[in-house]
Every structure is written in C-alpha cells, then in structure tokens.
Amino acid sequence: MNHASSPAAGQGASAITIQLDGQPRQLPAGTSLAALVAQIGHAPEAVSSAVNGDFVPRGLRAERLLAEGDAVLLFQPIVGG
Length: 81
Known about the structure:
Layout: E1 15-20, E2 23-28, H1 33-40, E3 48-51, E4 54-55, E5 71-75
C-alpha cells in the first residue's frame, strides 16, 4: 500500500498563509490574486490591489500567484478631480 497518496501526505504544502489587509488568511497553494479577490466577494473593478507593496494592475491579477507570507492590500481606488 502506498501511503504517500493519502490525504495527509504533503498537507503542509497544500496551504499558505498570507496577510490580507494586515490579517492572516489561509489559502490553497497556487491561489492567484484574482481568485482571492473573487473569493472575498469583491467585484474586480471595485478594488485596487498591491502585493508586498507593489501595485498589481487588474489585468495581471490572474497571473500573480500568491506565496507564503505575501502581504496583500485591497483598497478602493481614489477617483475625483
């Protein structure tokens, strides 16, 4: 019997912890920034985003995979004149 394929095998690598707006949040490994925004329930155009202090444009969120310890900020874009 191969125990390596049991659900507990590699379980530590299947989840990561990030900081979302200063609060710890666990996510599945491989979660993109776009998936996180959707998971929280925000409309993609309703928030701006930054990871580790770097602005991430809306169009690049799907490509930006989150990693252990990333600091994610979601904020309302400032508009006006």
